[in-house]
Amino acid sequence: MTKAELVDQVAATAQLPKHQTDAVITRFLQAIMDALHAGESVELRGFGRFRLRHRQPRAGRNPRTGGTVQIPAKTVPAFTAGKAFQALVQNGAETSGDADDIANRRQTTYW
Question: Which residues pair with 87 in a beta bridge?
Answer without folding.
Answer: none
